[in-house]
Amino acid sequence: YRVKRAGGGHAAFQRQEDQRATQQVERLTALHRAIERDELRLYFQPVVQAESRAMVGYEALLRWIRPSGIVNPLDFIPLAESSGLIIPIGRWVLKEAVGVLNSGAVQEVCVNVSALEIRQPDFVEHLRWVLEESGIEPRRLCLELTESSMLEPRFAAVLHEVHSLGVHTALDDFGNGYSSLTAMTSLPVHVVKIDRSFTMDIGEGTPGGVRALEVVRGIVAMANAYGLPTVAEGVETPEQADLLTQVGCAYLQGYLFGRPEPLPLR
Ligand code: C2E
Ligand code: MG
Ligand code: MG
Ligand code: MG
């Protein structure tokens, strides 16, 4: 009886695996067509200055609008990365963001860039071309790079080239992986974005919240010592916003100030 059950369980597991594989293939086929079918959209989430709470810019966040509903990036960016589709998708994101800047709908925008995009030998050349084509002021654009990009052999070179174009850069999800100290100390980065996992943990009501705040205070102080302002991600409560402001975060971003929304922005 036991053996039979175990066997049945295995068959069920195999069926589930097969279904998953089929779903992945279907999704990849659909993702291939997403650009030509005009199913990708940029949503925009505000970033505010901590002291004044004045809006200073937006982060562009990708959404895939499917007939079955809206798909969030965490559910398709990994597939886009492993299949290489992130390259045309990333180019679409850049073109779209620059178009939005050109339209005057937003003054400054940050776009997220994957490590695989950085790896392309023509990444900076393409960026330069898009900027020239549009004529926008390069410093209105900011590229957000994560710690996984730091593992790319050309990471430092790309940062310097991007910097020389006048485009700003942000170190995204800071603290959420390998140490990025070297990026802070020696690379032309404009701002450090402290990962949401830190923001989530701070506050008097949260267990360990006081200690978590001290960790954030340390990160902010270290960044500031290198002349880098910080953005706290994922700010959801007024208490978090106040504490982050007190420890010296220059900018705040999170649902408290606005969720990612499609254009036109109110
Ligand atoms: P990220 O760059 O760290 O973006 C912040 C994520 O946190 C976004 O999720 C945003 O919607 C979410 N968020 C913002 N404020 C709050 C908050 O107060 N509470 C909570 N719970 N969440 C908040 P989203 O839009 O699902 O994007 C997830 C990740 O996907 C991004 O993380 C980024 O790494 C990646 N991504 C998004 N758009 C692009 C893109 O155009 N290209 C690439 N390569 N990656 C992208
Ligand atoms: Mg980001
Ligand atoms: Mg982030
Ligand atoms: Mg994050």
Protein architecture, described:
The protein contains 10 helices and 10 strands. The longest helix has 33 residues, at 2-34. The relative contact order is 0.12. Helices cover 47% and strands 20% of the residues. Helix 10 (238-246) links the parallel strand 8 (230-232) and strand 9 (251-253). Strands 1-2-4-5-6-7-8-9 form an 8-stranded mixed β-barrel, surrounded by 4 helices. It is globular and about 55 Å long. The protein has helices at residues 2-34, 77-83, 86-103, 115-119, 123-134, 155-165, 181-186, 196-201, 209-225, 238-246, and strands at 40-49, 55-66, 69-71, 109-113, 141-145, 168-174, 191-194, 230-232, 251-253, 261-262. It is an alpha/beta fold and 266 residues long. The structure holds ligand C2E and magnesium ion (3 copies). One magnesium ion binds next to loops.
Which descriptors would you attach to this protein?
266 residues; alpha/beta; 10 helices; 47% helix; globular; binds ligand C2E; binds magnesium ion
Q: How would you summarize what this structure contains?
A:
This protein has 266 residues and is α/β, with parallel strands linked by helices. It has 10 helices and 10 strands.
- Measured as a percent range, the helix fraction is 40-55%
Catalogue the unreliable spans.
none
How big a fraction of the residues is strand?
Answer: 15-25%
Mean pLDDT: 93
The distinct ligands, each listed once, are: ligand C2E, magnesium ion
Question: What profile does the largest beta sheet have?
Answer: 8 strands, mixed, barrel
Q: What is the spatial order of strands in the main beta sheet?
A: 1-2-4-5-6-7-8-9
Distance separating the two termini: 63 Å
SSE order:
HEEEHHEHHEHEHEHHEHEE
- The rough form would be described as globular
